[in-house]
Amino acid sequence: MAESHSESTSDSPTTTSSTHDQSAISTSTRSHHVPEIPIEIISEEEMAILDAALAATRSFLPSAIRSAAASPSRGVSKASITMLSKRKLSACSSSSSLDIEDSFLRRFRKNQALGVTDLTATEWCEKQMENVLCLGRRKVSKAMKLGQARHLELEEEVVKRVRVKVESNEDKWALKLLSSIAGVNQFLFEGRTRELLLVGFVGGQWIVGVIDEVSKASAGDSSDTGPLLSDTKTRVRDTLPAEPQRRNGRLQVMLYKLLWDTVVKEEFPATRFFNYFALNRHEVLSKDVRDNIADAGIPAQTLEEIVRYYETTFKMLPVANDQLLLRYEFQQDRSIIAEIRFPHDPEWVMSKYKEVIEFWRSEREAEYTPEEERWKCRYCQFAKSCPGNPSLQSPSPSSPPREPRPLAS
Ligand code: SF4
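# iron/sulfur cluster complex -> structure
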């Protein structure tokens, strides 16, 4: 057993047929009701996880070793919104001019990596993301807390948390990277790990993601033997979410694959890493951190040495499997609603990635969610003031598309 951080939740919507699930949907057989209120539990901010990681990290080798010595196309183009309404809810900007020096990235993620959940939340609705950044997020709901608790429970099946005192940012990063190294070791020796933190430089941007689960692909799955990346979503209702929500889930797992493949294939830009995160590569780590590193059997004193181990460790790994997996679990009894396998789509994920990065770099105005998905507005904390919300103009907002029952397995 190794130790780690958890990935968790926030609420958002549900229901319809998939254009991107060219996939087998294996499901439980049980009677289903299409949810009236589409609620889904998705990952919360990656940065929150990182904050949690400041105090907690994995023990660095799996127990066995210690004892012995992720074209669809959203199919939807950007929402066609009038420029007038676009500019009405610019919660952050005092002027309509776009200035890269004043980008969301610089203002809200200075010296930080963008989390994968930053990216997926932006895909959900850019305007909502803008408002979350500028006005704040509402409190965590009960469903979100349940989802977080479930993720923690799943993580604890394979990971044991330990607390380590940190004294500097170098210490924090050393623990994060060591946690990743431990996760990889666990995957290699036990065939599975959970909550694997990855940081990589993807397309000119530092990205961090916490992969819910990495497991060895079973021989029967396909000829692709690359590690299988998957994510479990817990749901308040025993139905699949709407297609936009499933699309968002697929994007998340594909981003994990993009990140994974980048880290295993490309040289880790260490100098850029130290500069961007304002870290001193030569600083000797604190005693507690060094003790933990030593317990892991790694002879390292500085962050630079840990970075080298991180790079070397991932270089041993193959690219991730082209098949990705989303698992939907019913919160109430933890039964599996569906397991959706889908192929990685490199062109689609790159186009979405670029689109989202444009938003973060403030290279264009934030868009409202597409018109056909404005039912999302009913569950949005900014609905009462957002010009994109159709119910502000009409009493009958569009409804989420209905999701057919999952296929019986
Ligand atoms: S009300 Fe609708 S368009 Fe406006 S921020 Fe929320 S989800 Fe986006």
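# post-check
Residues 10-392 form a domain with the Lambda Exonuclease; Chain A fold (CATH 3.90.320.10).
Residues 125, 127-128, 131, 368-369, 374, 376-377, 380, 382-383, 386, 388-389 surround iron/sulfur cluster (CB under 6 Å).
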